[in-house]
Amino acid sequence: SNNFVRDDGQPFTGSVPREVGHGWSSSTRIIPADVTGDGFTDLLAVDAAGKMLLYSNNFVRDDGQPFTGGVPREVGHGWSSSTRIIPADVTGDGFTDLLAVDAGGKMLLYSNNFVRDDGQPYTGGTPREVGHGWAGSTRILT
User: Fold this and answer.
1) Confidence category of residue 108, pLDDT binned at 50, 70, 90
2) What is the residue-wise DSSP string for 75-110?
3) 106 in Cβ contact with 134 (< 8 Å)
4) Relative to the CA of 108, which of 64, 73, 95, 135 has its CA 20 to 30 Å away?
5) To which H or E segment does residue 28 belong?
6) Furthest-apart CA pair in the chain: how many Å?
């Protein structure tokens, strides 16, 4: 864990790492994002078929073992056609939205409506095109 202050500016060096999950080799992408809006970073995993699974971070509830206390939820499919997936709170509501770029450079916004859509983010509506011409970009940072 990052103990920047305690470890004199040397994060990740002052403690023994602990396993918080296994079986991640089938994921083609792992995206850190506060999907649930609780202040803890959750994980989104995309498999080779384009299915996206949400692994909620229940650090407090699960005695310091995030991503292990429950079954992941499918929160989308068809993500294999995206060349990039960028997590960002685009809508400013405290929940991480997703920006997806397709092979043609079109950027789509998938709003995270976690509360409104009964815990199924990115599924409650049609994504909005928010840009184009992104195919030539090698990195996109938020």
Assistant:
1) very high
2) EE--GGGEEEEEEE-TTSSSS-EEEEEETT--EEEE
3) yes
4) 73
5) strand 27-33
6) 47
